[in-house]
Amino acid sequence: MKFINTFTLRFLIAGLGLVLPSAGSYASSQDEAMSYDTVIATWQPRHESIAHLNEAEKILTSSRYLTAGGDERERVTRFTNRLRNNFDTLNAGQKERLIILEARLLQGVHKFEQAKQHLSQITHYRSPAAQLLLADINIQQGNTAQAKHYCEQLVGQTSFLIAFTCMVNADFSEKKDAKLLEKLNAFETYTSAARPDEKQWFYEVLADMSLQLGNAEEAIRYLNQTAFNALPISALLVWAEAHFKLGEFDTITNTLAAAVSDISTVDDGLLLKWAKAERAQGITSSNVQSRLAKNMEIRVWREDSSHAAQVATYFLEVQPNYALALKFAKLNWEYAQTNNDKQLLERAQKAVDA
């Protein structure tokens, strides 16, 4: 996966077509203590049922923010299973929305091919939400041309800002070219009429491009166009990496400590950034690092493909175990093949060979 930021378009999907819109010896000692029922988050399941599709779409989108409780995907999965059992009673619009919701769940655990097959049940060219999702899946798989094809189909079906950002983002995923950043930045004028989620995504893409081109200050400037508490996890990963590049480690730790009330619900990728910032300050033991270690232990035992990039990075940069890092970098490469995934695999191989 694109570890710094997948730029998954799911934050926009809920607002488009739907209202129309991440073993070996390390784990072997844990076999008796763990099972596939072992949970990573410590949230207590909420038992209230989701009443309708609008609510389910919003809840799934909310899972990608700091305020998430940790049980959103499980609740939405129960809802989709219930609706699937009554599929024939749904109207055409409801069926399409359910299929896209199910595909988003599949994408979230890196079941990309299954998600694409699932979306084949609907007419793609009439569904901006499906096109956005297919564009994102293909970017994560390294299929730039196909991703851009789906982005181009958005023209005339959604805002120009979304369609153009999607196309430039697809091109940049293949070739990190400063001209693409300049090209996208020129369309900042269109943000004046954009919805808040469209505007946020536009600036997030610009921020990630800037960061990958070596300009962390500019990345932060773009992210500052959105209130910190309104940034999704994907944008927070860019924010943390930018501050890390600038050596502003205490900014990362202090800001996250103030914003997070329960680290057990924090995304593993963000925990990883947080732990790295602590280590950079000489902090070798903390609740954050203990939580991350526990999460990684479980991911290793499960051979969790959806978090393989995070596991590989953890064993490269936080708790060196290069053999495990390579194992999970290879596992990640089986599913996600962006340039960042390739670089992660190369780094792990180099560490093992050293």
From TrEMBL:
<protein>
    <submittedName>
        <fullName>Signal peptide protein</fullName>
    </submittedName>
</protein>
<feature type="signal peptide">
    <location>
        <begin position="1"/>
        <end position="27"/>
    </location>
</feature>
<keyword id="KW-0732">Signal</keyword>
